[in-house]
Design a protein that fits this description.
With 77 residues, the protein is an alpha+beta fold. Helices cover 18% and strands 26% of the residues. The strands form three sheets. It has a two-stranded antiparallel ribbon with strand order 1-2. A hairpin with a 6-residue loop joins strand 1 and strand 2. This is Phage terminase large subunit GpA-like protein. It comes from Streptomyces africanus.
Length: 77
């Protein structure tokens, strides 16, 4: 049994996420999202969907990017 790195639960069905050269172990998607999801630099929400990356900064959408002074950013629909 492995241990979730977020909540510490020892669970027989943990899973690994390999990202940027590191291996993370979680017992559920909620813990994975808590640890891995970027945070919008304007409204501070966890970005679970696509989000918008502008010049190395993450936003939940174009509205928040524009609110931070980024120009020419539009949501893809």
């Amino acid at each position: 049994m492995a241990t979730c790195e977020v909540c510490g639960n020892q669970y027989g069905m943990t899973f690994e996420v390999h990202a940027q050269g590191a291996v993370h172990v979680f017992d559920c998607f909620a813990c994975a999202i808590h640890r891995m999801a970027p945070i919008c630099e304007h409204c501070r929400v966890q970005i679970i969907g696509q989000g918008v990356e502008v010049e190395g900064h993450w936003f939940c959408g174009a509205h928040c990017a524009r609110a931070e002074g980024k120009v020419g950013i539009v949501d893809k629909v």
